[in-house]
Write a structure and sequence with these properties.
The chain is an all-beta fold and about 260 residues long. It contains one helix and 19 strands.
Length: about 260
Amino acid sequence: NVGSSEAPPWKDGVPISAACTSQATVVLNEKGKVFMTGTLHGRVFQTWTRIEIPLPRNCIQVAAGRHFCIALMASGAVVTWGAGHFGQLGVVRSGSESSALTFAAQPVLIERLLHGYTRSPIVQVAAGSWHGLALTESGQIWAWGSNRSLQCGFPQTKTHQSITLPLPIANLPVVKQIAAGRSHSCALSDTGRVYCWGSSHFGQCGTGVMTRRGTAGLMPTQVEGLPTSLEMVQVSAGGNHTICLSKAGRVFTWGDG
């Protein structure tokens, strides 16, 4: 997965961020170009390969799940590629309103995240193993993909086990940052409070409630154990644990240890 080429991404511009699927690495450089090496759901990139995104603006952020990738463009448009068996591409098959696109070899546009639907441009994206999150400039989260552990923030029904097209999550305050773990999600509010939802069989949602493995998880809930006197400024989600950073420089962790 380290790749080898006569023209790696740093030859065309300094890398500014990277993300990893289970078997591939994605790099974004300072010129807004995206490169990949490794294997993405059976598609092999033996050397650093430019991912051609068919949009006029540069990429400003990349995120990666288990077998899929998300890219945010400077225009606020969001594209995905890779596997989509759980709806994690956020796109339906041509001619269908509910059947998820199961694989995209090249980036495809998530039309449901365009300004006409969200009413506010997307400013951040995050990828769990099988679900995706997008944050609007106004502070609203849109989610899609697997919802089997409620990681998309919707009550589990027959139609909500997989969210094929992004939907806005209700009952959250104004959010300024998002993070996604294996099967749980996190949000940082504009007042410095942390909210988590989804799988919590290791306590990764930090609510004091541990769900049984394989059962539905938790709906969006504020993490009450954090000191109310401290303002949190960043949250990060690992596979089965969560970390947050306070404005005072203190770090708090919970979940699988």
